[in-house]
User: Fold these one by one.
Assistant:
Number 1:
Amino acid sequence: MSNLPKIAWIGLGIMGSPMSENLIKAGYQVTGYTLEQDKLDRLAAAGGTAAGSIAEAVRDADVVITMVPASPQVEAIAHGPDGILENARSGALLIDMSSITPQTSVDLAKAAADKGIRVLDAPVSGGEAGAIEAVLSIMVGGEQADFDEAEPIFEALGRTIVLCGPHGSGQTVKAANQLIVAVNIQACAEAVVFLEKSGVDLKAALDVLNGGLAGSTVLTRKKDNFLNRDFKPGFRIDLHHKDMGIVTDAARTVGAALPVGAVVAQLVASLRAQGDGGLDHSALLRAVERLSGAQV
């Protein structure tokens, strides 16, 4: 029998499925729950156990990990008679890896403490590829002792793992991450349109740009999306729209000006309004093309 903690995983989407599978590969016993039967089947095929409810999944777990789209979903799975807090055992560690508002994380930690459940907020960056390759950046908020306990689990999921401060700090850092990523994608998209309209060999141009100061992880990860106009979602515009709302709202609360971020947030919102919300966030290129007169 393994001495590793038993893990319950709630939320098996684009990120959650490969992440849970990496824990299985690392030797963890993972029981999962999500709303889609095909995702439960995938977990079972990978060696995990499919549960019929949140309560069933978390009942015997030492660690509960959640990866769902936004604050309302975190609140829905955490609270209520069928939720995590009512059904997880006292002393369990709840790790929320969703990207939500910092305040939601703070409130969740307080509610969980009343049940004897410890909480870490641990959102990630790296997208679907990072989840599959287990090279995610994981930014964590919570207590040092809980972080130390969770670190071996994080090491099976990511490469850069940092405790950023008390509850909510991980979400604050993730909001900053999403600001940087969105602005970076927008700049890359504008460069792509500029280069193509100038008649330059786009692949050659992006290769040389990525080798200099203009290079970035964003350009490395999204270069083929731009070249091939392949916008299969690794991280959907819908979700980045949600995250830009989080960062602009949080910045307003603390009195931080985000002039460029606010513009990019509106460009993300406009792309979503045009029906592209289900596409990868590299589809910001489509918005630039439309503004430049292309029919897309």
Note: The radius of gyration is 20 Å.
Number 2:
Amino acid sequence: MNRRQFLGSSAALLAVRPSFAQEGPFRTKYFPISAGIGLHDLAPAPDGTVWFTAQGKGMLGRLDPKDGTFKTVSLGQGAAPHGVTIGPDGAPWITEGGQNAIARVEPKDLKVTLFRLPEKFASANLNTGVFDKDGAYWFTGQSGYYGRLAPKSGEMSVFRAPKGVGPYGITVTPKGDVWYASLAGSYIAKIDLATGNANVVEPPTPSQGSRRVWSDSKSRIWVSEWNSGHVSVHDPADGSWKTWKLPGERPRTYAVYVDDKDKVWLTDFSANAIVRFDPATERFNVFASDKPNANVRQLDGRPGELWGCESGNDRIVMIQTIATG
């Protein structure tokens, strides 16, 4: 659905200012990493550890939350990793923009394997990646690309984004669909997994700056809107949208993550906070950092735990749900 179709449809935008809630039964814990390491994204692993990208030093790291210790491995000369996700093989896979490659790190010995993009797609500015249900790895490049890697064969296909520069966040739904967000293009798009074509869907707020996306359990697409300070949700089943503005005067919504309870977590650079949104009650919880300029760029989690990278302070933050009753 394009913008003109949306405006003419009966699925009108629901724009509301939700009520605001203080912190509930949650516990926040910080894990300092090396100053200047340049934390960016992370991915909790099944074994309880947390993998993280250190863009400033060209490294991938693994945090053990039990004692706060961590190990790092260099991804190569000139490395500048951005996103990381855990593959079906249990290994972390990284969008490594510095070497214009997808990197895999073996968890046992930290061996690094690179899958380089073709030369004609140099400087793709790789951002984030996700695995579809068939085990293919899909990734975005903010210079105007998205692509697919077959991990077993190493075969790679790269596609030009329909509106040029901007592809950034990416997600896979329970139904198996892959969607990405375009920051510069201010749209989201569903990828045809067979052909690689992208179907553009424009949010109702003009020039909103769709930065990251995450699917909930119903395969609805949640969008963090950097320019507008909104969080939006698109339901592909009926083409509808709903939009909410984050608390505060000038929110800047960066990251989005939907947990196992379908609660939506976001980061707000202006508020120096992580924000939790409950779609059922339309209420926000705001978790302000205890240090200025936290700049949490990405969120991920597992049941009962929300994880994020404070890029401004080079700390990893965990917000844990405390059982009550």
Note: Residues 1-23 have pLDDT under 50 and may be disordered.
Number 3:
Amino acid sequence: MSRGSRKVAVVGAALSDCGRVDDATPYTLHAQAARRALADAGLGREVVDGFASAGLGTLAPVEVAEYLGLRPTWVDSTSVGGSTWEVMAAHAADAIAAGHANAVLLVYGSTARADIKAGRRTGDLSFGARGPLQFEVPYGHTLIAKYAMAARRHMIEHGTTIEQLAEVAVQARANAALNPDAMFRDPVTVDDVLSGPMIADPFTKLHCCIRSDGGAAVLLAAEEVVRDCRTAPVWVLGTGEHVSHAAMSQWEDFTVSPAAVSGRLAFERAGVRPGEMDFAQIYDAFTYMTLVTLEDLGFCAKGEGGAFVEKGRLRVEGGELPVNTDGGGLSAQHPGMRGLFLLVEAVRQLRGEAGARQVRDADGQLPRLGVASGTGGWFCSSGTVVLGR
């Protein structure tokens, strides 16, 4: 349970149009997702007294709140990359539990793919060359190269194979095949992954996330608001957050992500164990992220992630621990900071609204517990949220 005196639940969750969206602005996608999340909850925007957003506008989230016609009395603009939304959810849950807000709306939207197609931006992502990055940029140390170097370290220390990493992509695509809204649904094999063009050794193209457009929104509310909602509540049981490093030289161990801390905190605060989870939604900009996060959340021991992802364990159909049930950033959608999409998918699974990709136990029962864990930067930050019904 979140710290404070009031229980907190997710009462609305929705996506905007995703995938290939050439005729919308980021603001449009924010608004579309927000309207759909409120409609999902059966509430009007007047109930929203808290707002959290990042990544858009000079004064984010002030500009987005204005665009949506909101005047919140609680606001958060935390920006820590892909883990932003799990960290924001933690902050929002604490604020609601403490009585500082009653209903907090988290919103994100991006036209990353459409902007590149239209020539409004390039395909390269630069974080600049100031601060600690000044010591890495001159050597061409790109974002993807940092993830690739960490993956190679894991392979050297623990014997993880490139085929095992490829299995993460294969199983993500198998889950995406069950999701009619996923951007890529055709099956792929380990050989397909390995034979693709090299992006950053050891990552070929299919080891890397796709680039899409899209938005997402989640509405968190106090327990007394729940009775006015159209949907069944999904309770926030525990959260954790952690930052690790900015410069790679300050990262003590490339084989340990900050999820090792955020996950431990979230499970402890929820009073549950990793083994009780019915599914996991994990940030997967690259295959290695899924593997190492599974280790650090406690689903397997350090160094055993490669063996764990073999034999279809991550699949919705027949998997022991379904992971990224919508297809994840590797196959479903990845418009940038994808952490909010993890929360939407987790909520849909717990409500039994996931259609053909719905997770059920051997008796056909719906899941009761799930975890969403986002990672930001190059394993610089992590936020983990445990949810239950």
Note: The longest helix spans residues 26-41.
